[in-house]
């Protein structure tokens, strides 16, 4: 995936399929973003260091859910790192599928693993840095 020894923000955005705004306003502000150097009048970043950052902080690790098994929001949260609250919020905004089985008897909604995988495929992968305080 790395074609050049260094990349400027617009090249990073193009290479990773994100907006220039994502690179300049989110990624470069992360404390583990690689240091820059000058390439002409632009800040440039080591391409391998950018690839390492994306792998460690942006790319969503693969989730291993059985496609035909049912999962609760808590189980999905445990497997994906997405909180139950985010699932509820995304569902209310139409960004998460309706449950395959609504918990009429126990009040717990459940989704098939295949539907969870499809929902995750459309999500961005960026994980915010949290300061341990």
Short description:
The protein has 133 residues and is an alpha+beta fold. Helices cover 40% and strands 14% of the residues.
Task: Walk me through what this model shows.
- It is built from 6 helices and 5 strands, in the order βααββαβααβα.
- The protein is α+β, with helices and mostly antiparallel strands and 133 residues long.
- It folds into 2 domains: 6-58, Multidrug-efflux Transporter Regulator, Chain: A, Domain 2 (Orthogonal Bundle); 70-121.
- α1 (9-16) packs across α2.
- The radius of gyration is 18 Å and the shape is elongated.
Topology:
Elements: E1 6-8, H1 9-16, H2 20-26, E2 36-39, E3 42-46, H3 47-58, E4 70-72, H4 73-80, H5 84-92, E5 110-112, H6 113-121
Antiparallel strand pairs: 1-3, 2-3, 4-5
Helix pairs in contact: 1-2
Helix content: 25-40%
- For the record, the CATH architecture of the largest domain stands as Orthogonal Bundle
CATH fold description of the largest domain: Multidrug-efflux Transporter Regulator, Chain: A, Domain 2
Biggest β-sheet description: 3 strands, antiparallel
Global Rg: 18 Å
What count of structural domains? Answer: 2
Number of strands: 5
The number of helical runs is 6
The CATH class label of the largest domain is Mainly Alpha
- Write the H/E string, N to C: EHHEEHEHHEH
Uncertain spans, ≥5 residues at pLDDT below 50?
126-133
Q: What's the pLDDT, averaged over the residues?
A: 85
Distance between the termini: 36 Å
Structural class: alpha+beta
Give the strand order of the largest sheet, numbering strands 1, 2, ... along the chain: 1-3-2
Beta-strand content bin = 5-15%
Shape: elongated
């Amino acid at each position: 995936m790395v074609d050049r020894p260094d990349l400027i923000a617009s090249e990073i955005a193009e290479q990773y399929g994100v907006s220039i705004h994502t690179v300049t306003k989110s990624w470069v502000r992360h404390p583990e973003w690689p240091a820059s150097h000058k390439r002409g009048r632009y800040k440039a970043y080591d391409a391998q260091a950018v690839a390492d950052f994306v792998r460690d902080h942006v790319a969503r690790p693969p989730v291993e859910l059985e496609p035909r098994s049912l999962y609760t929001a808590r189980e999905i949260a445990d497997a994906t790192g997405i909180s139950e609250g985010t699932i509820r919020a995304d569902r209310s905004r139409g960004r998460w599928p309706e449950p395959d089985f609504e918990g009429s008897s126990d009040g717990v909604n459940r989704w098939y693993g295949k539907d969870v995988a499809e929902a995750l495929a459309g999500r961005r992968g960026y994980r915010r840095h949290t300061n341990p305080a």
